[in-house]
Amino acid sequence: MSVIKGLSGSTYHSLDSQINVIISSLMSLSTYFTDLFFSEDSSRLVIASNAYALRRRTQTQRGTENSSFQVNSFNFPFMNLGLSSGGIELDNGRLPNTRRLTTSGIYDETLQKKVRLTPININFESTYFSQNEKDIQFVMDRLLWEQSAETILTPSLEIDGNSFSNYGSLRYSTIGYNTEYSEQDWLEKNKIRTVSIAGQLTTYLVRLNPDGVSNKEAFCIPKTLILSYSDKLGINLDSYEDTELAVIERIMENLVWE
Question: Closest Cα to residue 21, out of 183, 224, 241, 201?
Answer without folding.
Answer: 201
